[in-house]
Amino acid sequence: MNIDEIKSKLNSSDAEIEVLSLCEKFLDEKIEQENNRARLAEQRTSTLLNTLGASAAFLVFAGSELKKVSFSFADGSWFIIFLFSFSLLYIFRSVYYSIRSIQVGFIKRTTPESIFELQEKNKEEALKDVLAGKLWELKNIIHPNTTRLFYVQRAQRALVLFFSSLLLTSIFAILNKYGVLYSIQCALIVCAFLMIPFYFLVDKLIEKNNGWNH
Predict the structure, then answer these.
(1) What residues form the membrane-spanning segments (predicted)?
(2) DSSP assignment, residue 2?
């Protein structure tokens, strides 16, 4: 819907200037809310990228430590590499969604030059033009902001799962030193099979149940 189509729906008369002024105030509040959402998305993305940079250092350190361990399918130590592989997948996913949030298209806004057109109109028509412009701008802000926050939330989830996988890798590496993994190999195989579909379905399951809706 363009500005002219929006303007045609604003049918308040000159006697209802107060109604138009009230609508303008409402739109100003909504636009400010969307601007705050945009700033929030940018701040979260910046924080994510900084955290991912630090996370890469943890990943390199963990990888260098795992090189010292001999792995075998016989004693269950293969599960440590399996977990570490998932931590790699999750950090790559977090980086991917962080980049997607940055790549969201530019937000369309009204130009300041439109003020020159308003000077030739009466108060009612000028106010309708201003309202139409603000409503058009609001409609063009909402979708990019929602998309950006959608990707940011997915990147946050992936980062949390990355740290969880890395922590579990460390715990199972310690257990492996005491030969615990050998005695629970059946449980490890079940966990491995469950983790594969979980990787692909976790976002949809959480989003479906509004488990991560900020």
Answers:
(1) 47-64, 76-99, 158-175, 181-202
(2) -
- The one-letter amino acid code at 146 reads T
DSSP state for residue 113 in the 8-state scheme:
G
3 state SS for the chain: CCHHHHHHCCCCCHHHHHHHHHHHHHHHHHHHHHHHHHHHHHHHHHHHHHHHHHHHHHHHHHHHHHCCCCCCCCCCCHHHHHHHHHHHHHHHHHHHHHHHHHCCCCCCCCCHHHHHHHCCCCHHHHHHHHHHHHHHHHHHHHHHHHHHHHHHHHHHHHHHHHHHHHHHHHHHHHHHHCCHHHHCHHHHHHHHHHHHHHHHHHHHHHHHCCCCCC
Closest CA to 177 of 70, 104, 103, 97: 70
Q: What is the pLDDT of residues 79-105, one digit of tens each?
A: 888 999 999 999 999 999 999 988 775
